[in-house]
Design goal:
By secondary structure, the protein is an all-alpha fold. Helix content is about 80%, strand content about 0%. It has 9 helices and no strands. Helix 5 packs parallel to helix 9.
Length: about 300
């Protein structure tokens, strides 16, 4: 698709690069609500409709598989309801995000091309892209996921992997400890770094914006206006990253405790917190400094027997 304007005519560039994105944004604002509703009903509806199917086939695959032993099967059966009940919530959040991105930004991009009508062009394309995404979501849920379950349930293994029941209980305790400590520390860390992160994003955006040429400033002005509004929102939503990292840290506590010893599992969450602190400090302050001095060195790859 060819663009509507070219930078060789400064008058047309000034007019079109300003008004075309605004026209696209107006169309996006009009349809973003219906697009979000469509993705919510489509994707979340698919997740809910297929949930009984998910439950049945997941439990069936877990019971049939010879890859894991009886202890892990029992723990899996006890924990699966939690994971399966969270799936529609994940689908809902994904629907809102995808619907917002498609509904608001896709009409702007389409409006800049000569292949679409200036007034109503891009609206039908946005709905088509949304329906295609919902179709791919259905395909993933109904075909790809269940193909994996079929392979998992029917694969043969002479020596299934299993864990001692005491080790499983200790692992769950370590995971709960890691999740509790991690969520307290990481949410406190997010609160402290919220305003510095928002300031850093604004600073980087304006520095990048100042390096543009005149026609590029006009061309991308609408996107920067949207970014100015969305940067505080992204800073607030960064809490999801911290919580997700905490889940990783809790699971890592259980794994480290199983592979090495209980002490290693207890300390592991603090190493995870330190790594998160270093990563976020590098993004915000461009330094790899961390306030947490605890470092967990990798021990020899030899499983200890202290939690057996």
């Amino acid at each position: 698709m060819e663009g509507r304007v070219y930078p060789d005519n400064i008058f047309l560039a000034c007019c079109c690069y300003v008004f075309l994105p605004i026209i696209g944004l107006i169309k996006g604002v009009i349809i973003v609500g219906p697009i979000i509703i469509l993705t919510i009903f489509g994707c979340t509806g698919i997740a809910i409709i297929l949930l009984p199917h998910d439950i049945f086939l997941t439990y069936k695959a877990l019971c049939k598989t010879s890859l894991i032993g009886i202890n892990l099967k029992i723990i899996g059966m006890l924990l699966l309801p939690v994971a399966l009940s969270v799936w529609p919530i994940v689908a809902l959040l994904e629907s809102c995000l995808i619907g917002f991105i498609y509904g608001l930004f896709f009409p702007i991009l389409i409006t800049l091309n000569t292949d679409c009508n200036l007034i109503y062009g891009g609206i039908a394309d946005t709905f088509k892209e949304t329906f295609d995404f919902i179709g791919e979501f259905w395909k993933f849920n109904y075909e790809n996921y269940f193909n994996y379950l079929y392979k998992f349930g029917n694969e043969d293994c002479d020596e299934p992997f299993d864990i001692n029941i005491i080790q499983i209980i200790i692992g769950l305790i370590l995971a709960g400890y890691g999740l509790t400590v991690g969520v307290i520390i990481l949410i406190f860390m997010w609160i402290i770094k919220l305003f510095p992160s928002i300031y850093h994003m604004y600073n980087e955006m304006f520095k990048y914006y100042c390096n543009f040429k005149c026609y590029e400033i006009l061309m991308y002005s609408i996107f920067y206006l949207i970014a100015i509004i969305l940067i505080p929102v992204s800073g607030v939503l960064a809490i999801l990253f911290y919580i997700g990292y905490d889940f990783y840290g809790g699971v890592l506590c259980a794994i480290e405790g199983y592979q090495y010893n209980i002490g290693r599992g207890v300390i592991s969450i603090w190493a995870t917190i330190r790594n998160c602190d270093i990563f976020t400090n590098y993004l915000i302050f461009e330094t790899k400094y961390s306030s947490f001095l605890i470092v967990v060195k990798h021990a020899k790859q030899k499983k200890k027997t202290s939690i057996s």
